[in-house]
Each structure stands twice: as C-alpha cells, then as structure tokens.
Write a structure and sequence with these properties.
single chain; 394 residues; Aspartate Aminotransferase, domain 1; alpha/beta; globular; three-stranded antiparallel sheet; binds pyridoxal-5'-phosphate
Length: 394
C-alpha cells in the first residue's frame, strides 16, 4: 500500500466546487438551474486586460519570468497599495502568485506544524481550516457572529491567543458572510497584538475593493506596528473578474519574503507570463469596469437582501462587502446543509450550506449574488415557493 503523510487524512476541500459540479450536471440533464453557489463574478474580464495578454504572447512573452513576478507588475502592485491604502510597499516584498488561494497555502505551510496553533475565522473560507489541519497544527476558530454584523471581535480574537499561536488569519470583507470589520475594531485588535509579538498575521483582503453603503475597507497594511509580521493576500480574481486566470499577489515581511520566493521556485517557478501582463494592464489601466461591477453588485445586493427578508422563516442582515448574502434560516425548520441540497435538487437553485464554512455556519446558507438581477429574482421566488410548500416540516 502506498503510504502518504498523515496530513492527507485531515485535508478538506471547498464544497462550492462540488455544488458547482452538481449544478452543471443537473443543467446538462436539461434542468433549469440558477447558480448562486460559486463565488465568482459573472462579468467578462475587461477587454483591455484580455488584449494585454494576447499582445504579450504576440510580443514573445511566453517564457519563464522571475519567480517573484515581472518587475513592472510588482511595482504596479506596490503603487496600487499606495494609492488605495496610503502605504509605502517595497516592490521587493511583493510576490506574484497563481491565485489568491496560494498565499494562504504558503503562509499556513510556513507556520503550521504539530504543537502550533493557528486562529482562523468561523464561519470562514474553508481552505483556512483545511490547510491548518493538513500541517498538523491545531485549528482555533475565531467566532464570527451575526449579532456583531459578521465583523470579527478584537477582544474575542485576542482572548484566543496563547504562547503556541503562530498565525492569526483575518478576512474583511469576508466570505461567506459579507461582513466588514469597522476601523475601531481593527485598531483595537492591532493595539492588542502589540502584546503578542510572536503572532504573525495573514490578512486576506481579496474583496478589498468591494464594500457598500460608504463602508470603508481598512487594510491591515496601514498599521506600521504590524509591518514586520503581516502577510497580505490580495489579487485579481474578484476585483477584475479574473478567477480563471489564476493571478494573485502577496506582500511578505522582510523576514519571510525569501522563504516565500523559495517555495515559489520549488512549486511553480513563475506565474503564467501573459497573465502577468494582463494583471499589469488591470492595475495600470482604467478602473471604470471595476467601479461598474461594484455598482452592479450593490444593486443586486439590495434586491437579494430585500427578497430574502420577505421569505417566511428567513432573516438576512445587509452585507457590507464582497458579493455574498448569509441569511439565517433557523426558523425554516431545516438544517442548513439539507436545505441547500434540497434547494438545488428540487427548486433548481444552487446555494451553499453554512456548515461548509465552519461549525458556526449551521443555521445559515450562503448565496452569491454574482448573477443577474433577473436570475436572482427568479431564485428568490423559487426559494420562497419551496419553503411555503416544504418549510417547517423537519
Ligand atoms: N480568499 C477568500 C476569502 C476567497 O473567498 C477566495 C475565493 O473565493 C480566495 C481567497 C481565493 O481567491 P483565488 O480564486 O484568487 O484563489
């Protein structure tokens, strides 16, 4: 028998991809399925970005690049961070990676091992916990609560830190809740972290450009006291509708950038060269497409929140970021995962059960509103109809 490392007995995955596969299968059988499951923009990558990749290939940019990314792209990332957050970043600390996810993979690998503890949000992006388990470290969930508008609590987070804590993972704006943590809470957390200099921080800011109702995104990079232990995760996937390009970036502190570079050299050598030129065009070109996409998400957000709250048994807080609604379905009489599965199989609406994002996700489902308003309205009708017929039965 082949004997692999124990981590594979513990590694998980992302159920959103299984739901996507099932939704596609049902659609292939002729069923009319509305997919509010997967978290990816339904817009096309803006034309000038696509053209930049095509031009890069025509110009002969088809070979290896430096493992850390092409210099103009790393400079553009640094310039973008300065523009958005007012933070001076040395392009030498920037690493271009094949997708935002890769940064969490690397950071968790760097800090996780048996005996170590890693704090992560629950409910939260499922890969955090999966990778922590893989390394053998102890996953310590930081509760993300509905009555706190799905922001993290600085006090609760700090109370979970021990001598064994190696890494704290933060995510705002958040998946799956759409929660955005306000400045005051982040400031309290950062001040408290000064008492724990042994804790590194991974700030997942992949939805940094998607906030609504005037809510500000506060980047952890804007706090100098964290500069020597903060890893920033961001990228192109959500902001520029580029999920399939596999393009992300991270900023690493001086003590870690060379370790990160070595991991990159060992694993993928460099990111797809034409995709890096596309990423450069995205950052340096017009941002109107981003503004339009965010404005459209905002319109859909209102439609979905209003529609969900009109359904008997469902209540939904207004998410202030990302493109997810995370309604409370406890009064429907259904557990979240059976409800998600019945909505797909019987009502033709793909959503994700809250427990796929952690134990505290029970009682909630996640709907991605990266779909047309017309589809969102039809999905809401179907969910309402389904619960009228089948609600409060279990
Ligand atoms: N971080 C969060 C919170 C996400 O929701 C996602 C994608 O859904 C990612 C990271 C990964 O993004 P990418 O597709 O760039 O790997």
């Amino acid at each position: 028998m082949l004997r692999t490392i124990a981590g594979f007995d513990r590694i998980g995955e992302e159920n959103a991809f299984a739901v996507l596969a099932r939704a596609t299968e049902l659609a292939g059988q002729g069923r009319d399925i509305i997919n509010l499951g997967i978290g990816q923009p339904d817009f096309k990558t803006p034309e000038h970005i696509v053209e930049a990749a095509v031009k890069a290939l025509r110009d002969g940019h088809h070979g290896y690049t430096p493992a850390t990314g092409i210099p103009p792209l790393r400079e553009a990332v640094a310039a973008g961070l300065y523009k958005r957050h007012g933070v001076e970043t040395d392009p030498g600390n920037v690493l271009i990676v094949p997708g935002g996810k890769v940064t969490m993979f690397m950071a968790i690998l760097m800090f996780g091992e048996p005996g170590a503890e890693i704090l992560y949000p629950d409910p939260g992006f499922p890969i955090y916990r999966s990778m922590i388990e893989f390394t053998g470290a102890r996953p310590v969930p930081v509760p993300i609560r509905e009555d706190n508008d799905f922001a993290f609590s600085a006090e609760e987070t700090l109370s979970l830190i021990t001598d064994r804590t190696r890494l704290l993972i933060l995510n705002s704006p958040a998946n799956p809740t759409g929660g955005v943590t306000p400045r005051a809470e982040i400031e309290t957390l950062v001040a408290g972290l000064e008492r724990h200099p042994h804790v590194a921080v991974l700030s997942d800011e992949i939805y940094s450009q998607m906030t609504y109702d005037g809510m500000e995104h506060v980047s952890l990079t804007s706090f100098p006291s964290l500069a020597d232990r903060l890893i920033l995760l961001d990228g192109w996937s959500k902001t520029y509708a580029m999920t399939g390009w596999r393009m992300g970036y991270s900023v690493w502190p001086d003590a870690l950038i060379d370790k990160a570079r070595k991991l990159a050299v060992n694993a993928w050598s460099c990111v797809n060269a034409p995709a890096q030129y596309a990423g450069l065009a995205a950052l340096t070109g017009p941002q109107t497409a981003v503004e339009e996409m965010v404005a459209e998400f905002d319109r859909r957000r209102r439609v979905i929140v209003e529609g969900l709250n009109a359904i008997d048994g469902i209540t939904c807080r207004t998410p202030l970021g990302a493109f997810y609604a995370f309604p409370n379905v406890k009064q429907t009489g259904w557990k979240a995962k059976p409800l998600a599965s019945a909505l797909l199989e019987e009502a033709g609406v793909a959503v994700i059960g809250g427990p796929d994002f952690g134990i505290l996700g029970e009682g909630y489902i996640r709907l991605s509103y990266a779909n047309s308003t017309a589809n969102i309205r039809t999905a809401l009708e179907r969910i309402g109809q389904f619960l009228q017929e089948r609600g409060k039965v279990r």
